[in-house]
Amino acid sequence: GERAALLAALAALPGVDESAPLQRQLAAGIALAPDRLAPRQLLVDVTSIARHDLRTGIERVVRAGLLELLRLQPPGVRVEPVYLSHEDGRWQCRYARQYGFALLGMDPQLTHDPIADVLPGDIYYGADFAPGAVAGAAAGGLFAGWRARGVEVDFVLYDLLPVRRPEFFPPNADLGHGAWLDVIAAEADRLVCISDAVADDMREWMARPGAPARATTPALATLHLGADLGVPAAAAADFAELPAALAARPVFLMVGTIEPRKGHLQALAAFELLWRQGVEVNLVIVGNEGWRPLAAPERRTIPLIVQRLAHHPELGRRLFWLQGLGDAALDEVYRRSACLLAASEGEGFGLPLIEAALHRLPILARALPVFREVAKEHALYFSGDTDAALAGAVRDWLALDAAGRAPPSAGMGWLTWRAHARGLLRLLGLADADAAHAPD
């Protein structure tokens, strides 16, 4: 019985022709078996950023995590950036060698992007957000074929906001995002969520009435994003361009792309109320205009936010909208601010909170579950969506700060990108506990 089962299993391996003589079937089966001496591959998907790296948002996160993995190169593991490619009517996975070379400061023309040699025991890690390519590859059977051969398939899950708060996204974005969520739920062995709040949302999504049937349910794990200290002052060349008026009164700082969910309209209304009441504070908004390629009706409130910012009577006096800042200038804005205002109505994590803590900048944040998860007791929280609610919270923070009782952010826990990479390797079973906890 065992011999028959072994022969049947060998014959069923991909690439084995059932009509071939037994010796050839055995040889093919052995050839497909993993080489115990060869390093396992961690295939980090960079499908989107390898083509167009916007250097913000998810792209910034993917790039930082990949760089640390490439620097660590754990024993017995080969870290390889890869991308999904549709060629000659079928989906394939290619090594992103040219992108990797450029990322490491080498000439990308010295290499090329061959088809990835994906073997049993390897791990595919979908770090990038490329829903179209992932859905196409899944429909083409790429992930199912890998899993059948013993390749682990994992995806990073950044948020479920388009399906949870569709009013903050372009029309029908919830349909596309929901379809992608169902694809990764069906194809993944594990989903690495960037917060417990995202994991809870995904658990609810997979259990919702009418959810597609799945052969298996992926494991859900949480790994917070990393953050690193800002650039040294010596690296900054654009500090002189920052408005001198920032120093005239306390600065409340908002950081993030201009999008409908970020709370800019409520913040503007709240600070207008404060200014009318004689409260002398600055509101500084750092972030570029979002969704510019979309037609105006699809951009929700972005045109209104931009119009109000660009033509506000306080612009350049007590209101500042700073676009296109480099890391050095952003670092200096953090240093010049009195408080980070995290007014977003939906996030998967909240990196500005970590960046504020790195600068020992106090935090006033909306009482989102994910913000409480990240900042814990190291922030003052507010609720409500009116100008009066937020204006009252700003007044409360100013009073606490004057009394020396505003919650300090300095004790907030956070991961460096090196610690994040080590935590990922431990989560994927690619590093032992001692290696994963080694000093940065």
Description:
- With 440 residues, the chain is α/β, with parallel strands linked by helices.
- The protein has helices at 2-12, 22-32, 57-72, 97-103, 131-139, 142-148, 161-164, 173-187, 196-206, 264-276, 302-310, 327-336, 351-358, 369-375, 387-402, 417-427, 433-436, and strands spanning 40-45, 77-87, 90-95, 123-126, 152-157, 190-193, 219-222, 251-255, 282-286, 319-322, 339-342, 363-366, 380-382.
- A hairpin with a 2-residue loop joins strand 2 and strand 3.
- 38% of the residues are buried.
- Mean pLDDT is 90; it is low at 27-31, 231-239 and 433-439.
In short:
The chain is of the alpha/beta class.
| Order of helical and strand elements | HHEHEEHEHHEHHEHEEHEHEHEHEHEHHH
The global form is elongated
Q: Percent of residues in beta strands?
A: 15-25%
Q: Tell me, rounded to a whole number, the average pLDDT.
A: 90
- First-last Cα distance: 53 Å
Count the helices. How many? 17
**Fraction of helical residues:** 25-40%
Radius of gyration: 25 Å
Count of beta strands: 13
Q: Report the sheet with the most strands, covering strand number, pairing sense and barrel closure.
A: 7 strands, mixed
Kindly report the spatial arrangement of strands forming the biggest sheet.
Answer: 3-2-1-4-5-6-7
Q: Uncertain regions: pLDDT < 50 for 5+ in a row? A: 27-31, 231-239, 433-439
Structural class comes to: alpha/beta
